[in-house]
């Protein structure tokens, strides 16, 4: 928010990043392992990206467009989820 002005809930890539970061935070828990935690982070990011479909844009380019025109999930949020999915699949081999 300090640099870009966006925060989770503003219908930006931060929505997916925030959701993934929250899930990745569980890696600090005893017994947590990377792949299951990353899988949970990917699922969280994908779910958060889908939720942006129903959000009003508070920052980014979408904030200049009428909410009635925004019928798709935020492209940045979808891209973040896709990159995380690719990382997970790459680690799984």
UniProtKB/TrEMBL annotation:
GO terms for cellular component: cytosol. It comes from the Eukaryota. GO terms for molecular function: glycerone kinase activity; triokinase activity. It catalyses: dihydroxyacetone + ATP = dihydroxyacetone phosphate + ADP + H(+); D-glyceraldehyde + ATP = D-glyceraldehyde 3-phosphate + ADP + H(+). One of its GO terms (biological process) is glycerol catabolic process. The keyword Kinase applies. Pfam families: Dak2 (PF02734). This is TKFC cyclase. It comes from Geococcyx californianus. The gene is Tkfc.
